[in-house]
Here is the input.
Amino acid sequence: MSYEVKLDIFEGPLDLLLYLIRKNELDIYNIPMALVTEQYLEHLEMMKALNLDLAGEYLVLAATLIHIKSRMLLPVEEGTGETEEERDPRADLVRQLLEYQAFKEVALSLDKRRVLDRDVFKRLLPADEIPDEPEEAMMEVSLFELIEAFKQVVERMDKEDLLEIDTERISLSDRINEILEDLSREKSLSFTDLLKSSRTRKSIIYTLLAILELMKMRVVRAFQSDPFGPIRIFPAVEESTDG
Here is the structure.
């Protein structure tokens, strides 16, 4: 790309792996390594193309997935005295994923609890208190779901819709301010509509990066009413501490 904007990744490689397992409705105890490795590497390429800073752990896990995939292509040696689990090259990875998933679930549960003196601090409204669509149980969207939705929108757009204008002047801060202005007028914004309102490839990318930056700063939050459904962007409303 002829422009440089780098944002830190705020979710880790195991989050990406769990997302791919959930997306493909896979059995975590019987992961098809060829499929998962291919999709994992595709997401890394997409994040690199967006100039998202990839921590070394992403590349380490990529190497681990490739190694496991290659080991599974080798014939199983009989008579080694090992159990089936010990012979399965995926066993360590599965244990790591299960431990990480359990940790995340506990952390999420603790975050939802009201603790002593918590009302001294401002906190974000939980998903079921997000305005605009209170009748629906809204689920918060991850970084990888946003990138997947971004990819699908771009692939569906005709090349004629992407009118590249070399003289266009745009910055990440400009796009952030535009999104915040739109949110000040609306209760929520459609992620797809935000992308489609951009007329150049550069503007589309800046729209995604602006949303990711606002999410990292906890200024906005992204939700969907069902898995892999339409994504909407909400302001991160804070509870009042008065009274």
In short: Residues 114-125, 127-135, 239-243 have pLDDT under 50 and may be disordered. DSSP finds nine helices and six strands in the chain. Residues 12 and 73 are 28 Å apart (CA to CA).
